[in-house]
Write a structure and sequence with these properties.
By secondary structure, the protein is an alpha/beta fold. The protein folds into two domains: 29-114, Leucine Dehydrogenase, chain A, domain 1 (Rossmann fold); 140-273, 3-Layer(aba) Sandwich (Rossmann fold). Helices cover 38% and strands 16% of the residues. It contains ten helices and eleven strands. The chain has helices at residues 7-27, 44-60, 75-87, 106-112, 124-131, 140-151, 171-179, 199-203, 255-258, 272-288, and strands spanning 3-4, 34-40, 63-69, 93-96, 160-164, 188-192, 208-211, 229-232, 236-239, 247-250, 264-265. The strands form three sheets. It has a six-stranded parallel β-sheet with strand order 1-11-8-7-5-6. The chain is globular. The model has no long low-confidence stretch (mean pLDDT 97). The structure holds guanine. The site of guanine has 8 residues, from strand 4 and helix 6.
Length: 295
């Protein structure tokens, strides 16, 4: 039997913990956490994600500001809005939803965000601090995965962790976090990607397999060791005539055939996804309290 890691339930628990802290702040007349999100253009997925982030802010009692900008906004205008938010003492956390239109430099925009407000943990300062094991804001998806491993008491020390995918948002930070001298952490990490030779046989040696490459159903049962823990970061819409919406959500892992081999696995939906928002809220709460996450 395998454990289904319930990210939806865990994220609701974290959100209740945050809501209780906000209620206490309100009672004591303290600063109510305030998250600002900048959304450029009309990308469907980005609109859904940002909408969910703003809604979750309301759920826990935060204030939120959504700044929507047209896809043809100039880089200069966007940088000006980031500067305004940096300087606004009312706003504790700022996220700029990615991807940005091609004519805008992600590096320039990210680099301008004040590290103290960078609750996505994307700035060079905060990525560097994360790598150094210094207090910082750890980016939301990797932070959410670490929290799931912690709350499900999954042993990681001395285990072989294979990460598939080297994105700046998930794969790369995940590999750093799992190798750090922390708990969870202390794993022996192999970071694999599109150029990796014989990825399937490396994956099969994993005690913990973290899959974040963005290909629906990429991981099949023959790539997974008996008893492994599998964390699926992928989320894809695939056509499904039996659903009212006309689609269903699937991950990077073929859940039905992989799950029976696992000791624990995250489903899609309801696994890693909901944890991302809970982590972002947690970082924003810390920012409002002028704290950072201490590993
Ligand atoms: N695009 C995909 N994931 C993320 C995220 O965690 N933060 C932001 N800002 N953009 C994203």
């Amino acid at each position: 039997m395998f454990t289904t890691i319930n990210g939806k339930k865990t994220s609701e628990e974290i959100k209740s913990e945050i809501a209780a802290r906000v209620a206490k702040i309100k009672r004591e007349g303290g600063k109510i956490p305030h998250l600002a999100a900048i959304l450029v253009g009309n990308d469907g997925a980005s609109q859904t994600y940002v909408g969910a982030k703003v809604k979750s802010c309301e759920q826990v009692g935060f204030e939120s500001t959504l700044v929507r900008m047209d896809a043809d906004v100039t880089e200069e205008e966007l940088l000006r809005v980031v500067e305004d938010i940096n300087a606004n003492p009312e706003i504790d956390g700022l996220i700029v939803q990615l991807p940005l239109p091609k004519h805008i430099s992600v590096e320039k925009v990210t680099n301008l965000i004040k590290p103290e407000k960078d609750v996505d943990g994307f700035t060079p300062t905060n990525v560097g601090r994360m790598a150094l094991n210094w207090p910082t804001y750890v980016s939301a998806t990797p932070f959410g995965i670490m929290e799931l491993l912690k709350r499900y008491q999954i042993p990681t020390s001395g285990k072989h962790c294979v990460v598939i995918g080297r994105s700046h948002i998930v794969g790369s930070p995940m590999s750093i976090l799992m190798a750090r001298n922390t708990d969870p952490g202390n794993a022996t990490v192999t970071l694999t990607h599109s150029r990796t030779k014989d990825l399937a046989s490396i994956a099969k040696t994993a005690d913990i397999l973290i899959v974040a490459l963005g290909k629906p159903g990429f991981v099949t049962a023959d790539m997974v060791k008996e008893g492994a823990v599998v964390i699926d970061v992928g989320i894809h819409r695939v056509p499904d005539a039996s659903k009212k919406s006309g689609f269903k959500l699937v991950g990077d892992v073929l859940f039905d055939e992989v799950a029976p081999k696992c000791s624990a696995i995250t489903p899609v939906p309801g696994g890693v996804g909901p944890m991302t928002i809970a982590s972002l809220l947690y970082n924003t709460l810390l920012a409002a309290e002028q704290q950072v996450y201490r590993p």
